[in-house]
Every structure is written in structure tokens, then in C-alpha cells.
Amino acid sequence: MKITMIGAGYVGLVSGVCFADFGHEVTCIDKDAGKIEALLAGRIPIFEPGLEQLVAENVKDGRLRFTTDLATSVSQSDVIFIAVGTPSRRGDGHADLSYVYDAAREIAAHVTGFTVIVTKSTVPVGTGDEVERIMRETNPSADIAVVSNPEFLREGAAIDDFKRPDRIVIGLNDDRARVVMTEVYRPLYLNQAPLLFTTRRTSELIKYAGNAFLAMKITFINEMADLCEKVGANVQEVARGIGLDGRIGAKFLHAGPGYGGSCFPKDTLALVKTAQDHDSPVRLIETTVAVNDNRKRAMGRKVIAAAGGDVRGKKVAVLGLTFKPNTDDMRDSPAIAIIQALNDGGAIVTGYDPEGMENARHVIDGIAYADSPYKAAEDADVLVIVTEWNEFRALNLDRLKASMKNPVLVDLRNIYHRDEVTKHGFSYTSVGRPD
Asked: What is the pLDDT of residues 108-131, one digit of tens each?
């Protein structure tokens, strides 16, 4: 099939290259000429394991192309995916749908023949209705079916998630689109990936409900971690004890500094706003958002307490700046709020991240950057692990202790055991585990 992907960002690029790898002819379009030039030159604008090689292979085989020319590609396509950004709108927290609606207008002006328009972007309930209205208003003769097909990709594992999905959700109000979308996902359908057809509004809500539930699980175990610290229990054992219950499950029960990234913060907030607009407030999610926001700052205070209650003039080394490992994404990373709290306390902060430092420089002011964990730790009074990159799991603790001014390690991801750290002479602080 001939597919056009509007938006060559994270979702659009990963989805486009995977569809091409299935054998479809895919054109990725973006208004950012610099991004398209980089892609044409083989430079991938995001860090995602395996993506660069997959792009190169499919470009070479002629199934994947990049352009800024929307008109030509749209007029020749069977299916057009809208995969543009939907950031939180300034002022009220609603999802900013201006990019989605602009794309709908442009597509409508150039579409020919029966075409399926798919919203891949994460959008609030009812967005598909408005996309259809806009397109029919722009081009009353357009023969279209508007479909919702949310993505469920984890950054750092996106290609595997796309090719081995837990489920494929497709929301439609026009049965003609069912055959087309089944063909789009035919390679996965043949491998028995669950293909769930719903109404369009149901599909839109599934995405938000799924992310909100996962965010709630993270926030729940973080609150349990705080309680564990007060009563002398071990949150990792609590998580294992409840996670073995098949009704609960073990995933997303890892205590830490709070969730961040491109999805959970904006999606939970958008769901809260949508629910309020429909006079059906989601109190659990409202609390989840508030607790998570407060937690990030609280982790900064935890570091200060580990340093003796005062960090003014002290050097703090922060390992891990991205919101999770295997990505360069800094959006709503806990490191931002933690470092802000340290800066407010007068600390001298040096950061290190394997992939995220270039992006970090755009969102974190007033810190220095090192080119390795050991450089960051030189003369430091405190070393803080914020993101659980694999290279931080086996640090040379003797080397770190020798270079630090004070051997204090704050492990906000619980990737070390207390005994193995303290035997090297460190003072050790973790999350939700007994001192």
C-alpha cells in the first residue's frame, strides 16, 4: 500500500520505517526542511536503538522516502497518517491540537479518490470528529474515512513494540476503513497480534486511559516507597509481593523519582482537562498528577538531606538526565526538577548522560557537563543516580570514592544493594528501602 506519514518526529518516523519494513511504500513528510535534509543524508534526529539501520535499509530498498512535498504524496496515497505533536497547551493544560487540524486542512486540499485518514497522534476524545468536519468543510467532495489508531510505543524499545505489539487499536465509524486498516497491519495480523476494532471515540479514550493507569501504578508504588521508609519496610519486596498477583502484575511497580517523558505528563493532564470539561472529573488521575509533580522536587530535598541538610557551595554530580534510559528525550525528566531544587539550595551541579546532554543544555541552565560518570564525580560531595542507564549499574566504586571529596551516593533508581556500596566506604541512600 502507499502510505503517507505526516510528521517525521518520534512516532511518525518509527511508525513510517516499520510500515516500510513490512513492505508498504511509505513517504514521511515534515515541514522542518532541516529535519528532512538530515534524514535524506542518513542522520537520524532522535536516538532510538536500531532505528538508524532500519531507516538506511528501507531507503536503500526504495520503500521509504522523505520530503516536504505534501501535495504530491497525499494525492497518491491509500492511507495518510497524522503523526504530529500534541503538546500541552500553555495556560490550561489541554492538548494543543493546532498541528493536527492544520494537517487535516492541508490533506483535504490534495486528497484524491477514497482515502483513509488516520490520527496516530495522541488526541482527546472527539478529535477525530473535528478532523472529519474540518476536512469535509475544506473539501466537500473528498471521499474519506477518518480513523483513530493510537500508538503504544515505549521510547528505547519502540521498534520491538511496533513489530510485536500487545494490541493494535483501530477506531472507526466507516466500515470501508476496516478492510484498508487490516491490510495495513496484515503482517502483524498474520502473526496473531490482537487487532481490536472499536468506535473512534472509544479508541481515542483507550490511549489516554492506558497511559493514565500506568502513571497511576508508578505513583502508587512511589507513595508506598515513602511509607516503607517510615515503617522500615522494603519497597522492592513489597512490589514483588503484590506484583506476583496476576490481577496486579509486576510492570510499572519500580519506585523512583517520578515519571516523565513525552506521554505520561501531557496525557494524564489532558485526560484530567477532558474529564473536567465533560463534568466527569477523574479524581484518581488528578491526584496522580499532583503527587508526581511534588515527588520530583521532593527527590531534590532527599539529595540535600543525604548531603547533611545543606548543599550550598557543595558539588553534586548527577548521573542520568533523560527521563528514562535508551533515549535522548528530556521532556518532563525528573532530573530537571531535581537539579532546580539543588541549584536553589546553592549546589554546584555537574551532569552526565550517555545520550541526552545536547538536549539537556536546552532545558537545564546553570550546570556543568562532564564526558563520563567519573569526570562528573571528581571532587563531588554527593553522587546522584537519576536515570538507570546500564553503564551506571556497574560503576567502579573504588575509583569513584578515590576521586570524590565525600563518598555519598544517592541511588534514586535502586540499582545497587546497600551492602555492596557501603563496603566500599560510601554513605548510601536509596528509595523506599531500610537505612
From this structure: 999 999 999 999 999 999 999 999
Torsion over CA: 39, 42, 48, 50 (sign)? positive
Evaluate whether 235 touches 430 at the Cβ level (below 8 Å).
Answer: no
Helix, strand, or coil (residue 119): strand
CA gap 395, 373 in Å, rounded: 8
CA distance 66 to 81: 14
Q: Which of 18, 28, 228, 263 is catalytic?
A: 263
> 195: which strand partners?
168
Whether residue 339 contacts residue 311, with contact meaning beta carbons closer than 8 Å, is answered with: no
Query: Which pLDDT tens digit goes with each residue over 315-328?
Result: 999 999 999 999 99
Which of 62, 72, 81, 118 is CA-nearest to residue 7?
81
Name residue 318's beta-bridge partners: 351, 384
SS3 55: helix
Scanning 232-258, the segments in alpha helix (DSSP H) are 235-243
What is the Cα–Cα distance from 81 to 73, expressed in whole angstroms?
Answer: 12
Question: Whole-angstrom Cα distance, residue 280 to residue 190?
Answer: 40
- Strand order across the 25-29 sheet: 64-67, 25-29, 2-6, 79-82, 115-119, 144-148, 168-172, 195-198
Q: How many CB atoms lie within 10 A of CB 346?
A: 12
How does strand 168-172 pair with strand 144-148? Answer: antiparallel
CA–CA gap between residue 183 and residue 188 (Å, rounded): 10
What cell numbers appear for 207 in the block?
Answer: 490511549
The answer to whether residues 123 and 97 touch, using CB atoms and an 8 Å cutoff, is yes
C-alpha 143/C-alpha 146 separation (Å) is: 10
Angstrom distance (rounded) from CA 300 to CA 298: 5
28 noted as active-site residue: no
Contacts of 207 (CB under 8 A, 6+ apart): 122, 150, 151, 152, 169, 267
Predicted TM-score (pTM) of the model is 0.93
